[in-house]
Batch of 2 targets.
Target 1
Amino acid sequence: MDEKAILKRIGVNPSMRFLLGPRSARLLACLALSLGLSAQSTTSPGQSKPAPGSPAGTPQAPVVIKELPPAQAPPPNLVDSGAYIRRFTFGGTLSWLPLSLIQGGKKSEVYGAPPISIESQADNKSKYFGVGGTMDAYITERYSVNVSLLWRRAGYHLTTKYHDTVDDPGTTTDERTLVKTVTEDTRADYYDVPLLVRRYNKSRYEGGWRYFYEAGGSARVVRNIRSQTQEETVSTITCCSEVPATPSSKSAFGATAGAGVMLKDDFGVKIVPGVRYTYWFGGIFNQRAAVSRRHQVEVGVSFVF
């Protein structure tokens, strides 16, 4: 920067340099240049210059850098997509009973004085298959509560013969006289509700097939009892009364235990075959030779989603 420019910058008219003299003007220019350099050196590199029009020495507002809030975590996945088996599963079930619901057989009874003999014979007419629905709810990663509702058809054919006396076992002939014969056909609907706790060998987050064992209680109620009764004597036949047979109890309770496996296909359908044993503490029917079976074995398969 030349001498004229320095004098002009400090507010001295360059034409006045002739009045000051060359030497004085040169000294004044050097002094102004040295003052400018010292003022520049006192300013820190990171300090901003004051805004035009603001008084010297006024502190500038610090620059505030706002930090963006951290990204919030996504809400929990309510679909439970990470599990191999969902927490709640529903489906249908098919049940087969190797043993009949009603025990067949014969029964002989003697009543009164003089005694009379009653002989009865029952034939099972129950259906061996039952159908219903099932639900499985996991309470931990390996334990679940399973509840089902199963419909079954029970029935029997009962023939009862009444004699006026008893047979003497010491003779070869039958001394009795047949008084009447009563034939009864009865059908009824059973509704079974087993409530069981299952324990799986794998967590529901682990893939592949798995096995389980289960235990709990079962309840049974009877509905829609339908009967048809015919009475025959030596001279008459009375047909047909449709008064429903009277059950010994309208409900029964039992203890159940079982085991099974769970398989899963490529479409997400779980196939659950298994076996169960139930001991009923009471029976629904106790009509002479027609008696409800206490020991029940069940083979079933469920299809759940």
Target 2
Amino acid sequence: MDKPNIHFAKELAELLKPFKQSLEQLKVQKLKLIIHAGTPKTGTTSLQSYLDKKQRKLRTKGILYPHNLEKLQNPNAPKHQWFEKNLVTANVESFLENFKNIISQVKTDTHTIILSSEGIYNYWWDFPDQSKDILSELGKLFDIDVWVWFREPLLFIESYYKQCIRNPQVKNNPCYGKDLSFAEMLKIKWFSQHLNYQGFVSECQILFGANNVSVFNYQGDVVQEVIQKLGLATPHDNPTPRQNKSLNGASIELLRTINYYDIKAKDKERLIPHLKEINDILESYANDSLIDEESRKKVIKISNAYGHYPYSSSIHS
């Protein structure tokens, strides 16, 4: 009996066979699969919204930003969260079903597929070995290029702390929706390991190849970088507006109080619009960093221990 990852690879290979001739005409051996893995708080929501809105224009360039399965929770969300969810649980059948859905959208002139979810980086260290094996098999079927943007570590980890406080509680996650200070959360390995930029890059290079990971320095407008790369830029392009405004320190303190009461996710979500309004009012009063001096030193020490900050200054071909 085939192992799940072998079964996955065989079924996908069969589905890709009909496109072999058209790929040869496009002078490529495999479909390119770009996996945009985040990181969180690097303009991911803006990029996903842009790619989703430009699906038709992308199609004319042979690029597919696929629709999600209708049966998924929130199928119209402009990102592909099923990718990491299936891998965290090693749900091979569901992962295969989602890829079948993608391939059903491939046309004869398609040469590139883009998948995007910052959760890929978020949950990378939660993927079991079986799921890493599936990713390795995926690399044999597609010409994979992992795209990942990194911020300066102190800026990233403070923003990520805010996101963890903002998120609803999730079973077995020690940081989401908790009443924790930054210093307290930094002591939790699940949180601090997100500073391991080099570890993520190295593991992806092992799985997909040393030249199949593209690392970029977040400079504020990922959308403009990507549309240049994809050949979609026009002379009239304007800077991309931010989709997710960061919460200030006062709003985070309010969220921690809400988290203390362990309220249901749907009730917390009802409070968010009110919190955003409070955030706007308090914006000029509460701009202090949430990282104290001792924690700042610890972040730098942890980041340095994981290795150098691995980025190139811009997208390369």
